[in-house]
Amino acid sequence: MKTDMSQKWKLHKNLPSYRLVQTALPAQSLAYLLTIIFFLSLLILLYVPWQQTTMGFGRVVAYAPLDRQQVIESPISGRVVKWHVHEGTRVKKGDPIIDISDNDPNFISRIREEKNALLQRLEAARAREDNIRSRIISLRSSRGSAVDAADSRRMMAKDRVRASEQAVDAAKAALKTANLNLDRQKQLWEKGLTSKRTLELAELEHTNAETGLDRAKATYDAAIKEERALYSDTGKVAQDAEASINDAKASLASAQSEVARVLEDLPKLEARLSRQETQEIFAPRDGTIMRILVNPDTQQVKEGDGVAILVPDAEDKAVELFISGNDIPLVGEGRKVRLQFQGYPVLQISGWPETAVGTFGGTVKLVDITDNGSGNFRVLVIPDRDDRKWPSSRYLRQGVRAKGWIFLNRVSVGYELWRRFNDFPPNLPMDDPEMKSLLDETGSGDKVK
Questions:
Q1: Which of 11, 207, 228, 401 reaches 20 to 30 Å from 86, CA-CA?
Q2: Which regions form coiled coils (predicted)?
Q3: pLDDT digit string (tens) for 217-258?
């Protein structure tokens, strides 16, 4: 059977139709060579370095917030009278932009009158405060004098008490002497050794001594009562003086409160007057009037309404990119960035930044601590000093769209393909101490390595 099959095969090879469909030997060799080159290329690519990046979209902004696009607001309510600029006008700081007229021509004069009245209230309140302070000083001085006078009267009453007490003792001694003399005269009268007149004089002296003792006791009692009354009066004088001082202090607090209220209202009124007097709006910074928001000569504006949009001149530019929250833990200050600006032709291969053409270098300066409400985080990128300069302000204006690739770590192409097939995040930055400690705590460090 094998012999028959071999004969049939040789017979088929000799057929003209078979020779027409048979692959030529050089073509077979070329196919084998290309296949080998293809698989060798794949094998080599598995070990070729690949730069991991995370991509974001954003726009060109000024680095300083004050240099970014801003709306010029009206400080007062009124009617637009005159425009000094139009859209596209270049302005310097302090150049007039718009004149606004108040709807009520007497409004400013009334505010000034209100301010004058407030100043008069302040002056009167301060004068009242000074008068009350002087009154308190006088009351304290008079309180000391009144208390000293009351103490003096009390000491005088105490002296009178001592004098009355001594008078009582003297009256008692005189009565005792009169009693002895009366007894002696009675004995002598009974013996006939003295006269009736002498006995009567002794009785009169005894009666006078008793009367003197009663009078001395009455005087002593009166002195005691006077001393007690003056002692109570001393406390009352001190209390009355303290009550007057406290009343004056309450009046002083009221005057100080009035001064504080006026001082609180005065700055508000002055600010209101200052805003109302500012009927001409000036450019806050050097820049260009991008858009006028109100119609000239006719439109009414309210306080705080925007009248124009100013784009300040800014040499220090930056790009704000919005990055997905999945990659934001890997993005930190100092990361290198490649930027593509709208309108500039570019060739950028994400994993091989060395081959990029038309891109500009940048460095991550700031990463917002919270998202923008959509799960994306803002990353502020500034020019890389080691790279070529960004285009000038004439060509690279604020608001130009930009695309950025933030560099992460370098890995092999094989690892990158494996990561993408498994939908894993980019390689974690193991040179970050905080990331290392986090991985050690979670026990996932070995897995990442």
A1: 401
A2: 108-135, 161-188, 238-279
A3: 877 777 777 777 767 666 666 677 777 777 877 887 887 888
* Separation CA 435–CA 449 (nearest Å): 13
Residue 392: count of CB within 10 angstroms of its CB: 10
Distance separating alpha carbons of residues 284 and 263, to the nearest angstrom: 30
Report d(CA 306, CA 293) in Å as an integer: 7
Q: How many CB atoms lie within 10 A of CB 74?
A: 23
As given in the structure block, the two tokens for residue 350 are 């994400």
Which of these, 276, 273, 281, lies nearest to 81 by C-alpha position? 281
Q: Is there a single domain that holds both residue 286 and residue 245?
A: no
Instruction: Tell whether 444 is covered by a domain.
Output: no
pTM above 0.70, yes or no: no
Q: How would DSSP label each residue in 318-356? A: EEEEEEETTTGGG--TT-EEEEEETTS--B--TT-GGG-
Q: How confident is the model at residue 444 (pLDDT cuts 50, 70, 90)?
A: very low
Query: Cα separation of 158 and 149, whole Å?
Result: 14
Write out the residue range of the structural domain in which residue 325 sits: 50-66+314-424
Are residues 210 and 226 both part of a single domain?
yes
- Neighbouring residues of 206: CB distance < 8 A, sequence distance ≥ 6: 175, 178, 179, 181, 182
**Residue pointed to by tokens 């460090």:** 445
Contacts 24+ apart (CB under 8 A), 301-306: 301/74, 301/77, 301/78, 301/79, 301/80, 301/100, 302/74, 302/77, 303/74, 303/75, 303/76, 303/77, 303/275, 304/73, 304/74, 305/73, 305/74, 306/71, 306/72, 306/73, 306/74
Residues 401 and 323 in one domain: yes
Q: Classify each residue of 136-163 as buried b or exposed e, where b means 16 or more C-beta atoms within 10 Å of its C-beta.
A: beebeeebeebeeebeebbeebbebbee
Strand, helix or coil for residue 397: coil
Considering the domain architecture, whether residues 164 and 199 belong to the same structural domain is answered as: yes
- Residue 440 falls inside a structural domain: no
Mean pLDDT value of segment 167-177:
78
* 277 vs 216, residue with greater confidence: 216
For position 362, which CATH number holds? 2.40.30.170
* Confidence at 148, pLDDT banded by 50, 70, 90: low
Total tally of structural domains belonging to the chain:
4
